Amino acid sequence: PLMGVPFGWAKPVPVNPARFRRDVRMGTGMAITAAAGPASNLALALLCGLGLGLVLRLDPAGPGVGLAELLNKAVLLNIPLALFNLLPIPPLDGSRIVDGFLPHRLRPQWEALGRVAPFLLVGVFFFGWRIIGAPAVALYHWIYDLSLRLAGA
Fold first, then answer.
1. Is the CB of residue 147 less than 8 Å from the CB of residue 141?
2. Euclidean distance between CA atoms 46 and 56, whole angstroms
């Protein structure tokens, strides 16, 4: 536990570069693979938002209220997860995306950042909402407005 709060660390996803297409560079393939996690969080948030709109359209005040709350919570959870994971701090996926496209001449500075990454990550845990809060809220409102339009509201 970190300050009394249960804290876990994700394991890196094993990637077999031999499965990349032959025309994809190793760095590009790793960046695309890393982008799949945040992209799936955003896709899930969007799908849950669309599902929320359908539930509200078909059953605005009936038994679907619990399902609507669940879908809304899924949107609220997946957006910050995606944005947090896109931060370019190792070991987050954002760092692997940057790493895949970084010019060779900037490698020493990037590797220096990697040495202080654990401290940066702790800082993000404590102050991260200041970084991702405004984009997360804006994206949530966009998805929620889309779901309300789908619901006919």
1. no
2. 15
Residues 99 and 31 sit within 8 Å (Cβ to Cβ): yes
Evaluate whether 129 touches 32 at the Cβ level (below 8 Å). no
Tokens at residue 61, please?
């005040």
| pTM recorded for the entire structure | 0.81
∠ CA 17-22-23, rounded to 5°: 115
Cα 146 to Cα 33, 40, 54, distances in angstroms: 29, 19, 11
User: What 3-state DSSP class applies to 86?
Assistant: coil
Lookup: tokens for 45: 């948030």
Which helix (H) or strand (E) segment holds residue 132: the answer is helix 107-151
Residue 117: what residue type?
Answer: A
Q: Per residue in 48-91, pLDDT tens?
A: 999 999 988 887 676 667 888 999 999 999 999 999 999 999 88
The predicted structure's pLDDT at residue 5: 52
For residue 2, pLDDT beyond 60: no
Distance set, CA 72 to CA 94, 136, 149 (Å): 26, 14, 15
